[in-house]
Every structure is written in structure tokens, then in C-alpha cells.
Batch of 3 targets.
Target 1
Amino acid sequence: MASTLLHIKNFFQSVHFKKYAKRFGFFILGLIALLLIACGGLSIYFNRNKTEIIAKINTKINENINGKFHIGDFHYKFLTGFPNFTLALKDVELKDNQWATHKHTLLKANEVEARLNIWSLLHNEINIHKILINDADIYVYKAENGYSNADIFKPKKKKTPENKSDRETTIDEIDLNDVHFILDNRLGHKLFDFDVASLNTKVNYDGSDWQTDVFLDTQIKSLAFNTVHGSFAKEKELKGTFNVSYSSKKEKIDVVTRNLKIGTDSFDIIAFFNLAKGNALFGINIGTSILWQNASNVLSANISSKLNRFNLSKPIDVNCDIKGDFNAEGDPRIVVQAIIKDNELSIPDGLIKKCNFKGIFTNNFKPKDGYNDANSAIILTRFAGEYENIPLTIPQLAINNLEKPLATGNVSSEFDIERLNQISNDKWIQFTAGHAKANLKFQFDIVDLYITKPRFIGKIDVDDASFHYIPKNVHAVKTNIHLDFTEKALLIKQITYKHNKNTIFIEGKIDNFLNLYYDAPERMIVNWKIYCPNIDLKQFLGVLATSQTTKVTAKTAKRPTISNHLRTVIDKCSVIIDIKADNINYNKLTATNTTATVQMIDSRLVIKNGSLQTSGGSITFNSEVKPSGKNFAFSSNAQVNRVDIASFLKSFNNFGVTSFNPKNIKGKLSSQANVTGFINSNGELITNSMHGNLTFNVNQGALLNFEPIVKIGKFAFPFRDVENITFSDLSGNLKLRGEQIDVNNFTISSSVLNLDAEGIYSFGRGTNLALTIPLRNSKNDIKLATKAERDAVRDRGIVLHLIALDGDDGKMKIKWGKKDK
């Protein structure tokens, strides 16, 4: 290595090398001197021929324009662009002949630098090698009538055989720096506005055809194909190299660019532009992999304003195809295709995870209806994802008419219904088990990009569902539901509901369901047919309980969800139930062969045409039960026919009467009642709450150890069996007033005595009963054949008039007296 370096050092110090180095230095100095002489000569030539050169430039330009070309000043740039002759024009303006009408200057430049071929110039010809435009404004204007200030350039004359060999003036290179370019097409409502920081191009000619690579660095102020809808890529930086070629035969420019930067994203673009007279067709195809928000922000405002309400978390592969006519009004044809794989789609109604589909946007859904929002559509194919943890499969979904969007398609889903708990954000229902399967054809409006009034035709099957309906505190297990949505009605089939020891089989129908559900839920009538082998009525009173209130946030108040809308419908709709039960238990009452029509209206339970058998007899009734605070208010109109009175009273806890219990009485009770009252949350009658009218009679009856009669008997009839009284007539006409009862007519015809009572009986304080008791022994009255005969002898003999009152010790006291005294 050291010997090599020594050899090189000796070579540079040799006489031979110094000799040739000296000659090369003289050669370089000669070239510089020659260059200076040539440049000086060009400067002298320009100064001597300045007027003639400028005149030739003006003549050459004015020969090719219909307008006015103005130069404020010009000078020669020494050595710049050598060996070309560089001429700098200052304050250049180019106007068309109609500038006074539209006031748009085609070109206004602080400096235009033209580099002329020296050899051509020495032969008195102008051949522009390169044009540089610095600090300029270019405004290409096209009026509504089709006139353009760019038409300033005269058409070229066809060459004749005599001058075919003459060379045309060509421009080989063009550079733009700090140029503001505007293309304002009023005819087609298009506006292209660019702040060009730099544009460089070198043109290669092949006869009349040419090709160039254009480097462009610009800021997009407007790229509006329709000024009504706004600009594409507004305020985005565009930077890249375009391969541009022109075919004179096709009169068309083709453009290809790869990795073009628009903002921070890269795009591949293929485009064409027709230049033939009367043919201004163009096409632009754009491909990229991009984030949804970035892609949306590249589009025009009318599109991005809608797309920005959506989002995809991962980049998507997108291809956009734009075709149109620069001379045509309105939008060009736009088709956007995107492939989405394993992504998360945010929509105004929620988030769809594990999302896969192919999406297509077109603004020409029906080919004959033009390019506009009303004829635009979004089509999704092979859609799969999870909405609120619910798996969805949609073979095809179409959203038509983006002015009034309408979505149609088919959806299928199969899942464990515990997943529904995530949809119910106000937690009004909680599922703990079950499986659901749905296959539906759907249609829904989209208002402000929210799903509105979804309508379905198809089937939903739910098996073995267990849930807790929180507002009514209802628990259910092993519930099966089969829903059939049709055009005219919702058919509810084969519902099996299990709650504690109760099993209910339900079928139902809701006419005009799809319309009433959204527009008038208060007019919706749900018709149920219910069969119960065995039911405990008390367990279902909770269904009528006042719903638990849920705090409404500003968000839920502004935007109702599917969940809380469903809850509103449940609260507002009316329910009519035709019920049949083999056995019904209520407290100690057991009823069989029960039938009734039940209406549930605004939390009220209305029972019509009720009929049941109990206690050896039958009851028919019409009733209403509704929540009242923590209790239930009821009203009833009932007819009781020959029930066992002891069993019946025991079933209803003796209606709160404490002065005797059911074991004190025997017989068959018939009664008619029109009463109101209250039942507590446990299903127990609230003592002393009843109001209304009651008439009754007991046949084949007996009073056993009835304290008021025993006391009277011991006082008035010490030798009669008052502890075991049989009677042929026990009847009354009562008015219930809560704690007190107005006894209008109470009659006992018995084996011991006859008794008539009238006045007030109180469950607390306030008893004041007037008792009329004939002293004669009525033991043998039963042997009389007719009631008339018994009535004729009823009041013979001595008659006692007694008053039953409350004593100071709380026990009933008997004294002499009549009611009016």
C-alpha cells in the first residue's frame, strides 16, 4: 500500500505530468475567455438589435393570438441559460379581445424568462427553447355562453407542400414558480384553483405528438367539478411527477402518475383529457390505500359532510373513477369502490366490529336519471360484522337517494341473547340465557344519517330465553318466542313463558304493526291468546307496578335509541288478552275453568267477561286494576253464585272483618257487588279500603258461635241454643265506606230467633247498629210451607229493640233503644 502511494506521488511530481497539466490549464482559460467573448458579443448584439428582437417577439406572439400582449420592460440575462440567449420580460400581461367584458386577465406575470436558440436567432428566426414564468397569475375563464379567454390563441394553419419542411416554433421546456392558476368554467360550474410553488417540464416532440414528465408542487385551493357541491382535496398539498403525453391524431392528453402525494397520502392516478373541438370529455381513475377520514377529506363537501359521520379504524383499499365533460353542467360520473377487511366501522347509531364487506358508491344509480344526490347510492355486498356484540350477515344492502336515503336489504343473525344486554344502555331489561335466530328483509329511512323507522318482513326465533324485566321486576325463565313479521301484521307464535311454578302458552297478533310502532304506538293493539295450566295470580301483579324511573341524559333525550323506543312502545300500546286457565290461585282462593278478556292499557289491567268456578259455585266479573303508588287500586262488578261462604271468605281473608271468622258461618253464598279498593304489592286486600255496594244472601246456612248473636242470646234468650243457629234466610244490603259499612237491610231468619239490623258497622270505632228481635221462638218456622207464611208470623209477640255500640274497652256493647233514638 505504501509503495502504491509513493508511486502516485512521484507521478504527480514528474516533469511529464506538469507539462500536460499546464497545457490543460491554458485550454480551460481559453474556453472561459471564449465564453466571455461570446456572451459579450451576445450582449452587444442584443443592445444593438434590442428593438428588432422585441419587435420579432411581439410579432411572433401577436401572430398567434386574438388579443393584446404587453411587456413593461425587458433585458438580457448575461450567461444565464448559456448557450441559449436568455431574455427576461418584466410585467407581462396577456388579455383577450373581450377582457373589458369579463375583466379576467389570462396572464399577468412579474417576470417571464424566454431562452432563445442562438443559432436560430442569428438566422433571424425565433425558436424558444425554454419558458420560465415567475410570480404570476394565470386565469383561464369560460363564460356561460361557451366563450373562453383561452381562445386567444389562433388555430395553426395547415402546412402546404411548399412550406412543409419549415420548422415551427416550439417550446421545449416550461418552468413555473410561484404561479397562481385558476380555471373558472362558468358553463360547467367548475372551478380549479392552484397555488403552484413549482412546475417543471421538458417536452419531447415526435412530429405533432409530444411527451413530458411534469413535476408539480402545488397547493389546491379548489378542485370543484361542481361549484355547488364544493371542492375535492381542498387546501391539500399536491406533489409528484406526472407522465403526460399528447396524441395529435386522437386530440387527447393522457396522464399517468404513481405515488402522487395529496396531503400525507399517496395515490396512483390514470387520466385522460380530450381537446378536440366540441369534445371536452375527461376521465380520472384514482387508486390508494388510505384511512377513511383522510379519504373523506379529499372529496367534495357534499360527500365528505356525510362520510365524516362514519369512520373505519384501519386503512382501506379504494378506487375512485371520475368521468365527465368539462362543458357539461353538474357533477361528473363518480364511482368509488372499497374493500374492507377485519375493520371497525363507526356509524351514528353505534360501532360495528369485525367488519368485512365490499362497498360501492355511485352518483348514477339509474343511468337515465343523471349524476346527483337523488340518484346516488351506496351498495354494500357480503357484509359481515358485529353490531353491539350482535353478529350480522347482509348479502347486499343498498342505500338509495342520498337526499332522502332509503336502505333496503336482507339481514340474518344467530347469537346467544345475553349479547342484547349491551344494546339496552338504560338497563331496562337483562337477559341471562337463550338463543336467537333471525332472517329478515328490511327497509329503513336514514334521517341525518341515523337509522329511522326500520321495517322488517321475516322471522325471529328465540328459544329458552331467561330475562329480568326491571321496570316491572318480572323474572322469566325458559321462554320461547317465535315472531313472524308480515306486510299487514306481526304474528307472535308459540310463546312459552315460565315464571316460578307458572307456565303460560301465548299466541298473539298486532295488526298494522309496522306503521303504528313508529307513528302511533298508543293506537297499537296487541291481541293475545293465553292458556295457563296453572297460574298464581299474585306473582303477576308486579307486571302492573309503576316502572322504575331512569335518568334521561341529554344524549338520550336528543337521540332516542332502538332500546328506549321499544320501551316507550311497550308502555304506550294497548293489550287485549283472551285468557283461559285450568287453575288459578290467588291467596287461598283456587279457581278452575277460568276465562276472561283482559286489556292492558297504560299500566291498567281491565278484565271483561270474567268467569270462574270456585268454592263449589261460580263467579262472573268485570274488573280493573291499576298501580297507585306502591299499591294497586281495583274496581270490580261481580256476581257470586252459590259458593261455599266459609271457603269464599277464607280465600279473601274475611275481607278484613275481625268480629267473626269464616268458621262462624256455613251456607251457600250468592252476592252482587260493585266495589272499589286497594291491594298491596303482596296481593293482599288492604283492610278497610273497600267502597261500594254489596247485596248478598246465604241459603242453607248456619251461624256457629257468632259473638254478637251469642251475646244477645245470652241476654235475651238464655234457654235457646244461640251458639249453633241454622237459618233459612241470611241476607243483606250493604254500602261499604272503608272502615265503616252502612247496613241498610240485614235479615236473619233462624232456628233460634229472627233478627233485623240497620245502621253502621265499623271495623274500628263507630259501630251503631239498631237490632230488631222478636222474642217468639222461631224454631218451628222452617216447617211453614211458604215464605209468605213465615213472614206473617215473623214479628208476632214481644219485640226487642236493641242498639249495638262500641264500648270504652273496644268491645261491642248492647243496650236498649231504637235507631232513631
Note: Confidence is low (pLDDT under 50) at residues 544-558.
Target 2
Amino acid sequence: MYLDEYKRWLAADLEDADLKPELSKIEGNDEEIKDRFAVALKFGTAGLRGVLGAGTNRMNIYVVRQATQGLANWVKTQGGSQTVAISYDSRLKSDVFAKTAAGVLAANGIKVRIYDALMPVPALSFATRYYECNAGIMVTASHNPAKYNGYKAYGPDGCQMTDDAAAIVYDEIQKTDVLTGAKYISFAAGVEQGLIRFVGDDCKKALYDAIEARQVRPGLCRTAGLKLVYSPLNGSGLVPVTHVLNDMGITDITIVPEQEYPNGYFTTCSYPNPEIFEALKLGLELATKTGADLMLATDPDADRVGIAMKCPDGSYELVSGNEMGVLLLDYICAGRIEKGTMPANPVAVKSIVSTPLADAVAKHYGVEMRNVLTGFKWIGDQIANLEAAGEVDRFIFGFEESYGYLAGPYVRDKDAVIGSMLICEMAAYYRSIGSSIKQRLEEIYAQYGRYLNKVDSFEFPGLTGMEKMASIMQKLRDEPLTEIGGHKVVKVMDYKKPEETGLPAANVLIYTLENGATVVVRPSGTEPKIKTYFTTLGKTLEEAQAQKDALAAAIEPILK
């Protein structure tokens, strides 16, 4: 079957000039052909994600057309505005894929609102809501290496598509021939016919206004003298992040020159992920040189932000997503109480794999903390529930340990633009009172205990990787762990059992140990990895780290 499909592609008159040479090069190489054609990229609630190239198991204009035809078939059953919003980041072919998707939608009589230049995930979520669209498309592979691209689908609420809708779209995709099944007109024809229009300045301004309205202490940054180094990691964050920071009065911003402008090859770091040191290395060097108070980096689609804070001795320390989530929650709560802007019965939301330290902080300030499944759409879902009840203003903050933050209901996905704004405002505030982010973090640990949260991951590449991951998870269910690292397991939560968790089913296991530590095991939703999350609590960092190391050593052989 896969050889027949390969030959069909090889014989076709392919519009993308990069594809035919690749197909010719692998002629006679069964392994390479199989890798590209034995399976198709699966469309799920995270959309599509894959390596760029030729074939059904690669990201290319034909796979994008097929996916968009499936989406169009679903949109046509939805009534409403019959409009789809589109945005894209700096990845290779992102603009091509975005315009290709627009051409398919227009050919199906569906109106399109597309950004005239790369813009991040939050901008797509906002435009989807602003124009009352049926759906949204974001062309990105987030923080994956340069050889990847992807296609995220959003529902009318600006949240990533629901499981039910994604299943319908997937069924429609499977009915659509990848090379010939999608209706298509050129982008130019769609514009001429009035079906494709650009996102207006009114929408862009409304997004910036919505973000800036969430300042905790408006005006503070104009006089705080904060000195910042910022890297958009060659992605889509440069324009929106600097726009908002300039508006709030932060003007001493040094951009990392090698990472300033869009570059889908990400030549300065193989993995443009603000969670990892290599991505922040150039920024840290520049921060040291300029004496910046803060170094900040957003990922290519600018939905996540990582930072390094200046310590009293002049060195810089990376702040984890869990630590920043706790710091922002603490800052927002204290600041809004002080300013009298805290709503009645405030609600914060975090994922089940994020630090329990946030629960303790929320309790201290009288905030209800809701814990949801991993994936920011579940945080968006909680905001939607509040909105449906006419109580959307109760939502003050949501976060995931993987550097995703949101502090308002104006979008339904994580937003590195508001994350950057609030981190800078927080840094400026602590600077203005003679303190620092580092000092505040130490005060939080002194008050609540030394929580340590660490994530390890195990990769399972290739066609057999998913099967191997599934068998490991199944074995953990068939043969439950009774102890980890010498500590007795006192409770196992299996999130495949919604009747026990009260949440939708998910492939997650959480082990609670007799010493209070927790170990979470879950396969990634977007990469061939099993992730393990460790939470330990010690009197000192060293004690908490020693506990984590012992637990990790005990878990590792099980996940090989």
C-alpha cells in the first residue's frame, strides 16, 4: 500500500518544488518510503505536527489542504459566521501553509480572516473570538526543532478544538484524498473574491488593550527603571511583546541580535524552547554584559515565556515554570488585594502536574484553585464555564508548569505577551521596593516550605515508539507500583477513570508516597515521549533534590 502511494506521489505534478527531488532521492529505499507513507499524520485536539517533507506522514501543502478540507466540512455544518481566523509563526513554510489553508477555505465558500504578518497563538485565539469565527488555525510547531511544522485547530471560543469536534474533522480528513480531494483556489483569487481578508488594525488594537488592562499596578513601570534583555528566539513575539512593554513604560530593552528577527532555521539553538538553557544562552551572555535586571525569552509561537532573574550577587538564575506560576499568582493576589481590584470569590486554575505550592499560595489569599488535566484547553474550559455562569471576572490566573500563563479571559490559550508584561511589572515592582524576584521567591519558600518540582522525559522515536509507550503505560496499570525508591505508595490516581477523578479521561498516573512526595507519569500529547513529574518537599533545596534523585533512579528502569 505505501509503495503504491509513494509511486502516485512520484508520478503526480506536485506544486511544491521541494517535494519531487526528495521523492526521487528515496527511490528504492524501502525504509525511507515506509517512514513517509506507511501512516498519515493523525489529526487530534492538538491538530497536526510533523517533520517537513513529502508524504502522508510529513507536513506539506497537500497534508495541509487535506486537513483544511476536513475542517471546512465541519465548519459548513456549524451555521454561524462561516468564518475562520488564521495566524502563523516564523517556521519554515508557515506562511505558505497559512495561505494554502486560506485557499481551501475560500474554495469552500468559507470566509477567512488572516494576519498580514506572523503573529502568536494568543493573537489567533483573540481574532477567532473577535470576529465570532467558527474556528481558528495556527500554523506552528511551537518549540520543536526547525525540521518540524504543525497546524493547531481552534474552536469558536478561541480554545483548542474539543475532542468531539476534532474526531469529526478527522473523519472528514480520512474521506478526503490527500492529493486531489481538497477544493482549492489560490490565495490571490480568494482575496479578489472578497472571501479572504486581513485581520484589521481594530482587532490588533483590541488585543493590546485587553492585555494592558490586566496590569496589576498601572503606571508603575514608567518610573521603575527596569533594564531588560529580551529574545523572541527568532519567532513571532518581537512585535507584540515590545509593543506592550513600550506602552507600559519599559523602554530599556536590549534585543538579542542573533535571535531578533524571524528565522525558521533557528540557527542559534537547535531546540527553540525557553525551558532549556541552550535557548537562553545568548540572552544570558548579553544580560551579564549589560547588567540587566531580567532576561526574558518567548518561544516561536509566543505562547510560552521563560526568564532568568538577576540574583543579589550579580549572577543570573533560570526560573522554572512552576516557580514563575507561583510568583505570578502571589504577585497578582497581593497586588489586586492592595489595589482593591480583586473580584469576589476569585478563581485560579492550574494543571494537575503543576506544583502544589500554588494550591498553598491560593489558599493563603482566599483564592479557589482548580486543578485540571494537562493542556491549556482545560484551563480555557474552566474560563468558559465561568463565562457561561456570568462570572468570568472571577478568573484571575491560570498556568502550566511548561511555562504557559494567562491572566485574563480575553483569549483561551496561554499567552507569552501578557506573561512577559506581568513578569516585567513584577520585577519592576520588587525593584522599586528594594527587593527582587529572587528575594520574593526565597520568602515564599520560607513561608510555605521548600517544594521542588522536576520533569524528566524518555524518548521513544520511530514507528514503534507509540506502541512501546502504550505497553509501558499498560504494564504500570496491570502491575501497580507498591513502592518507589523505598517509599510506600499510599495512593494511585488513574486519570483513565473519570468516575474517580471527576475529570475527563486522560492517560495519566499519579502516585502519592508516604513521605508526601508525588510522581506523575504521562505520555506527551505532542511528542513521542513519556514524561515523569516529581514533587518533593524538604527543609532545604538539597534535601528536596536528594529525594527527587532517589525517586528518578527508581523510576528510570521501568520506563526503558
Note: Residues 450-558 form a domain with the TATA-Binding Protein fold (CATH 3.30.310.50).
Target 3
Amino acid sequence: MTQIRFALAQIDTCVGALDDNAAKVLDYSRRAAADDARVVVFPEMTLTGYPIEDLALRRTFRQAAWDKANELAAALKKEGLRDLYVVVGTVGTDHETSKPYNRLVVLHDGVVWAGYDKHFLPNYGVFDEFRIFKAGERSVVLDVDGARLGVAICEDIWQDGGPVSELAGRDIDALVTINGSPYEEGKTDVRFELAKRRAAEVEAPLIYLNQVGGQDDLVFDGGSFVVDADGELVERSPMFMEDLSYWTLDTAKVRQTRTTVAPMLDPDEEVYTACVLGLKDYMAKNRFTGVTLGLSGGIDSALVAAMAADAVGGGNVHGISMPSMYSSDGSKDDAADLAANIGAHYDVQPIEPLFKAFQGQLDLDGVAAENLQARIRGVIVMAYSNSKGLLAVATGNKSELACGYSTIYGDAVGGYAPIKDLLKTRVWELARWRNKAAAAGVGIGGLKIVGNEAGNPGAPLKDGVMIPVASIEKAPSAELRPGQKDSDSLPEYELLDKVLAAYIEHAHGRADLLADGFDEKTVDTVMRLVDRAEWKRRQYPLGPKVTALAFGRDRRLPITNAFRE
């Protein structure tokens, strides 16, 4: 009989930050040892951060990462933690071919005690590992106090065969998987069902340790867990926060003891939090402390400003109202109310004088005159960004990006786009959720997220409202000409978003869309708009991926696309 206390170290790492990542591993290992853990498990590519992309191809980086693993093993021994088994991810090298490996190593007794290389290298969606890494070829079983622990890395449990099938015949007591599994809505259930199948396959409990935090346009949601051999959930860590949880394996028990199980999040809370964490970590890892954006009074800019306030505090948000001759009083009031609600800096920069100056020389009309207004606003936003050292954030949503309704070099300017993977109808849903959360006491910065693991409720919101109700309820309009509404040139968003979801996320072609019941005119209009806007989307800023198919990472059309069937 063997009892092994595992520490599940769900941490936020940064790509390339070897010293910082190693320091975090050392800190969490100290804490785990103080709580009598025997094995502490960290995420995929812990020391290097993930995904490292072409950094893996740089020999000097691989050598520095390997040196860091050895230094960390020695540091653990020096601090009296030599008996701890520390499972971390890093990059390795095949010395015959000089190709990198996605590697798991175990630090123990002052040395790199064991290693395992990832077998299945994903080459779909957001992943490009097949091009970068060499595949591992052997399964590994660790002997810890007489218990047999199989190991795997992320994709190795998603594919049939390979190391899991090999481990099924090696009488293991537990399967330990380290993961860098990016967030997308609905994926939590998919992971859990997969883990149950693999636990049944190896006839042993499965530990699923996942990364947390944002890295560029990916968000890692954590949500680490343990399932017993019969598929029962016996541990679950919280989503979107760093966490150190514990679970004890008892090899004498047929059914393992249940420990802490964090509650599931409301689906709207989950998506909203993912967007905020993506922005928060993008800023932190690129050393931005504040943001600037145009506040039009519309729902998109209101939701982005709310997310920014939750990410870095309202005092670090610089909102700019840039009214034109077509801006309604209601929109100007809504923008001011939003800024007041979140405690943002708020400036008014009318664009009519600038517009007239341009028109005096260019004399534009139609769409060119409309886009000129957006581009003047883009110049102002970037001027604030440059002069104040702020991250400019774009406010376009997925419906706009899909149809090309985001002005290139205008409202598309910025370094990050927090809602670029949210359809317009989803924007409204999340705005309503954020107000509901505000009414329930979730203040500005009060999300349960990396950096707020203590659960600070945040700065209170006056009257329990964050986003002005008028911004949510009014008909959307770019206000670039008198009486303009989005529905003048687009189907109503409730219909448009259904067509977009089918066309983009389910890859339905024209015949499929007609079979889905959409009318021919709508289908042809939407397909034409989406296909013609690819060149714009290629130039749009990064933003957090929260759906199965996000523009940029997952879905790219040829810029010249003549296929219409």
C-alpha cells in the first residue's frame, strides 16, 4: 500500500521568461512541500512558457532552458526539497538531429531525474507543433515510493493509441498529464469526458494539470482536475486563477477519496472572464499599465471599456469621446455615463473641425467620407497611445470583422481587440451578465482571476450598474451619416449571427446554408461580405480566442476568393 500526496500547481507562465518561470516553480514547490506533498505537478512547458513557437528552433534558447532545469533541480536540493518530485515541462533537444522536443522532466534529489517527450504533435487550429518539434517514441513509468505513475503531455491523451495505449498494459497506479490546453467555450465538458475515457483505458486515476493565463491571443483557463478510474470527479481546481490544490492517491483503495471540487462557472461569466484575462495578461506580459479607446456610447466600446476596467482598474482606462456632426446627444451621454461608472479618464475630442479640414482638401463623399471620420478617430486614439504610453484597444466584434464593417486604419487601430471573437448577439449577452454581476456585488476588478485569487470584490459600482442600459438597448449605429443604423445594410444581428456561426464555425457552404433554412438573398449577402473582408481581417489586432473557430488563429480564407458554392 502506498499513499502519495500530489500538489496540483496550476500557474500562469510567460513565454521566454526562464528566470521568472523557474522562480515561480520554486515558490510553489516550497509551498507544496510545506503541505506535505510528495509530488508537485506543473503545466506543459512550464519553464519556457507555452506556446514557444519558433523560439524552440533557437539552439541558444534550448540550451538556456536546459541549464535552467538543472539550476532549478540544484536549487530545490539546496533548499532541503531534494525528496520532492517536481514535474515540469520544458524544451529538450534530440542531439542526433538537433530537433527540439516538447519535454516533461522530473526534478528530484538535485538532478533532472527522469524525462518524457510528447508523442502526438498537434497541427490543427491554434497548434503548429508538428512543424517545430520531434515526436517522442517511448512511454515512461515513474516509480515513486512503490507507486507506478505513467506520464503524458496534453495531445497524447487526445489521440487514440500511442503512450496511453502502451501504459494500459503496464499496470500503472495513476496517469499524470501536463497540459497547455487553450480555452474555448464548451471545452471543459469535452476535456472531462476525454479524461474519463483515458482513466478507464489505463484502469487508474488520471491527473489533468492545465496552464492558466493569457499568452498573446490564447487564454488558458486552468480548471485542472482528477478523475478516478471509474470516471468520478475527485478534484477540480478553479478556472482562470492560479491555484495550488492537493489530492492523495491511495493504491490500496478501489475508489479514491474526493477532495476540493471548485464550482463550475456560469457560461457568460466564463467567456467574459476569459476575455478579461486575455487582455490583463497581454498587458502585463508586454509591460502596459493602461489602455486607451474611443467611447462612442455604443455597446461594443462600452463592453470593451468594462473589460479593461476589470483587467487593470478604471483609473487606468483612458476613454475618448470623439463626436462628429452626426453623433446623437444620447450617445454622447451614454459614453460619459460609462466613463463615470468605471472611474475612467474621460476626454472629449470633437472631430468636426478636423473632418472639415480634410474635406476642404479632399472633398470626399459616400463611404469615403464616412471612413474618413473613423480614420480621424483612429489617429486621435493612436496619439493618446503614443503620448501616454497606453495600449490602444480596438472595439470591433466578430460580426463586424466577418462582414468587413470595421474601418481599416480607423476603428480597427490598436494593439489588442478584446471582443474580436464575440458575435454581436454575444456582446449584448455578456453586457447584461456584467450588469447582473455588478448588481450582485462584483465591483470593478472583482472577477475571480489571476491576480485576484483572494477574491477581492473590487471597487463598488454606483447603483450596481456598470454598462449604461441605454447602450445595451438602443439600435446599433456607426453614426457616420444622418439616421444611420447597422440594419440599413446588414441583416438584423439575430439572423446575421446565426448565418455567420453556420458559415464560419461549422464551415457550411452555400448549399448547406440554404438547407439550414436561410433565405437565398441573406446567404449570398453574408457570404459575399465575409469572403471579401479577409484582407481586412489579416490586418486586425490580436484578441482572445474564445470560440472553436477564431479569425486569424483558426480560420483563414484566400484573400482572393472566387469560390461561391
Note: The chain has two domains: 3-263, 269-538.
